[in-house]
Design brief:
The protein has a six-stranded antiparallel sheet with strand order 1-4-8-7-6-5, covered by helices on one side. The protein has a three-stranded antiparallel sheet with strand order 2-3-9. The longest helix has 19 residues. The protein is of the alpha+beta class. The radius of gyration is 27 Å and the shape is globular. The chain has five helices and nine strands; from the N terminus they run H-H-H-H-E-E-E-E-H-E-E-E-E-E.
C-alpha cells in the first residue's frame, strides 16, 4: 500500500477522532469551553473511537495479493491476442488455449496460453518479426525484457503488474509465435 494512502487513512482517523471527542481544531474558544465543562469525555465516545481506530487499522493492514491465476490467465490471453492484432497477423491459431490451473505448490497455480499468426508480407525474417513484436509491446502492457536478448533466439518479457511472462518468437520467416504463462499465483 502506498504511503499516501496510509497517510490519508490516518488523517481521516485523526479527523474522526476529533469529531468524536467533540473538538473543533479551528475554534479554540469552543474547545476551551468544553474542557471547562468536563475533564473526562463520555466513556461511550472512547469506546466508539477505539472501535473506529481498530477498524481503520485492520483496513490499513490488509495487503493486495494481486490477481488470481484465473485473472492473470485472462490477461495473458488478451495480451497475446492483442499483440498479434497489433502486428496485423492473419490466420491466427490458438496453440494452447490454457484455461486450467497448473499446480505450482503451496496452493498456488499458473496458467498458460499460446498462439501463432502469419505476417502480412509472409517473407519477413525471424529477426524482423521478433523486433516488430517487441516494438508493439508498449501498446499491450508494461513488459520489460528478461535477460539478454539475442537476435537468433526467442525473447522473454515480463509484466510485473499483470504477473504475466511472454516468449516472443518466430520459428520461421513470416510466422509470429507467442507463448506465455502467468507467475505462480493464488488459485481462484
Amino acid at each position: 500500500m502506498e504511503v499516501s494512502v496510509i497517510m490519508w487513512i490516518l488523517g481521516g482517523a485523526a479527523a474522526l477522532t476529533e469529531i468524536m471527542w467533540g473538538r473543533n481544531l479551528f475554534r479554540p474558544d469552543v474547545e476551551a469551553k468544553m474542557a471547562q465543562q468536563s475533564r473526562y469525555p463520555d466513556p461511550r465516545r472512547k469506546l466508539a473511537v477505539a472501535a473506529l481506530l481498530t477498524l481503520l487499522a485492520l483496513t490499513a493492514c490488509t495487503t493486495d495479493n494481486g490477481p488470481t491465476a484465473t485473472q492473470a490467465g485472462q490477461t495473458l490471453k488478451n495480451h497475446v491476442l492483442q499483440l498479434l492484432a497489433e502486428r496485423d497477423a492473419s490466420n491466427v491459431r490458438v496453440i494452447d488455449p490454457g484455461g486450467r490451473d497448473l499446480p505450482c505448490g503451496d496452493g498456488k497455480a499458473r496458467r498458460t496460453f499460446s498462439a501463432t499468426g502469419m505476417d502480412v508480407s509472409k517473407g519477413s525474417s525471424q529477426y524482423v518479426l521478433r523486433t516488430a513484436m517487441l516494438g508493439a509491446l508498449e501498446r499491450v502492457g508494461h513488459y520489460k525484457i528478461v535477460g539478454q536478448p539475442r537476435t537468433t533466439e526467442a525473447v522473454r518479457v515480463a509484466d510485473a503488474s499483470s504477473k504475466t511472462i511472454l516468449t516472443i518468437d518466430s520459428p520461421e520467416n513470416g510466422v509470429y509465435s507467442i507463448s506465455g504463462e502467468t507467475e505462480c499465483l493464488r488459485a481462484a
